[in-house]
Amino acid sequence: MCGNEALAEAAIIAGCDAYFGYPITPQNEIPAYMSRRMPEEGRVFVQSESELAAINMVFGASATGKRAMTSSSSPGISLMQEGMSYLAGAELPAVVVNVMRGGPGLGNISPSQGDYFQATRGGGHGDYHTIVFGPSSVQELVDCMPLAFDLADQYRMTAVVLADGILGQMMEPIRLPSGPPRRFDGEKKPRRKPPPKDWALTGAKDRPQNIVRSLWLGEGVLEKLNYKLKAKYEQVEKSEVLCEQYKVDDADIVVVAYGIAARIVRGAVQKAREGGIKIGWIRPITLWPFPTEQISKAANEFRLFLTVELSNGQMLEDVKLAVAGKAPVLFYGRPGGGVPTVDEILDKIRQLSIPQKRPATKRRIKKQ
Amino acid sequence: MAGRIIIDIERCKGCGLCVAVCPKNGIAISKKSNKSGYFPAEAANSDCTGCAVCAIICPDVAIEVQKDDSGKDEIVSQQGRKTKPRLVKEKT
Amino acid sequence: MKTVFKRTPTIKDYPTHYCPGCGHGIAHRLIAEAIDELNIRHRTIGIAPVGCAVLAYNYFDVDMVEVAHGRAPAVATGMKRTNPDKIIFSYQGDGDLAAIGTAEIIHAAHRAEKITVIFINNAVFGMTGGQMAPTTVLGQVTATTPQGRTAASEGYPLQISELLAILPGAIYVERRALSSPGQVHKAKKAIKHAFELQVNSAPGLSLVELLSPCPTYWRMTPAEAMDWIEKEMTKVFPLGCLKDVSRDL
Fold first, then answer.
1. Which chains have 3 or more CB–CB distances shorter than 8 Å to chain A?
2. Which chain B residues are Cβ-neighbours of C15 within 8 angstroms?
3. Which pTM value belongs to this model?
């Protein structure tokens, strides 16, 4: 199945009650597929008049306790940032799929990873985060959909699935989730049980009214909410990091890449290994929470880190933060819809000269 | 038929709409303010008929209206929740 | 003595923050009475706008949600489509509905969403300090039209009810005023009808536009503001039922 349709079907299997979306290339297959399948399953599909409206329809459905999702591509996701900030402030679960394309502005319709900042730094206004997945195969795209809905419900957060134009369009054989979904390492894992949504707007029958809001004008109240959100995000960072490592232990070079870039990197790394270079990779699957610990641990041994992205360097910053100056962090990227080849990356790897030891640091203590 | 209005003085903001619409000129603004600093409305005479236009126009839904259904007593309009009703005169 | 008028249960016992003489309080009461008379409180969900009525959930005792400016009809769509048995209403001012939210209201009507929309038109943006609204009338002085609104520079006042009545999906559109007890009585009927249509699963959107006083930013007393509605606003925003498919007008 092609990535876009596969993720849509996986969402349906995961229990998505409602899909609201607006056409934008390269994810048009998603609303088209949903328009056919959702009514077949007795669920809701609406083609909204804009992405602004779509994210607000998600807000509405989610406020009543339903599982709602939308999908778009970079410019449309920009339009949704207001809604995503409101979702975070009101602590509503939601799933948003971003099939990234070249930007900024209208850009082009080629694949890109230029929305990493937007996705992992909240995106809209205010102090918040969304859970962000960066799958790198159609199977992973399928596997992360039930997890996205489950985590969204569990933590009352938005889960963003960052695909890109290649992943959305490419066709791969997949196994759709039936029964417990696959973990990313291939093992079967039971679905998490969603907590009861007693905060939802279901009609105030035999109970006091529920209010879903994000405006808190009282002295100190909004601050308190923000601390609550922070504690929640810390819990997510502690428990929900997903990442894949390959031959890091003896590596002189560690490549860090996600999504489609990681697919290309895999080919280059395997060829490099065959050519005798000691190289491995760390592949974040959740981009938020970021596998800071895993990268930090790898940086305890002196080695080169090479970040490869389809951008001018966004995840690069998180890698640098994680490495915390313990090792050099280099970058190779193609922005604006450019897609590197395996050989291009292989060349870059071969050009890297690996220092033999950590350079000595001089410390001067100032005399009085 | 006589009527009376009960004004919730803490809800009333003294906007004066009830004063303006009352067909009996039966409501006036008090010289004593409520806890919020507004000068609430109060009954000004005993001519209330219970027509309730004051309550209909009141933006603060601060007025309760009662009508005498016994046909016997005419009671002066009562204000607030603390003043006692005063029986003024009996209908002959 | 028997009580002939009493606050209806869906209005909470909580003093409002609205200005003295503001029309919101009247509109709130009419909606609450409609909800109570139709006995739908237990399955009604209301949407509060961004505007003076943002805290409407403190006044209506039903499940309520506060949403982004102008987006209420989209939120209502999400709610109604996934919960067809619930009564969904949005309560919006002229910034929310006639400025930033014009796309959302037009498309919700266009899609014939089965919701009830109460549109409060007070010809200004109240919450932010009395700026021009799309519904500000020509010549009206506001915080952003200190010389008075001119057609050449600011355009004409926007007549939302007329705009929406054209759409087949808008099945009931009526404009009323909150300017006198008689008008309030008629407004109540319109509001109740708008809710009734949803209760009866009528196939489309109902909108009641209410001309409402803003004494503070019109720089008038409440009684003067009521007069201004009847004398000036109704010239630009004529009262009446523009469309009601249920009555075969």
1. C
2. 10-11, 36, 60
3. 0.90
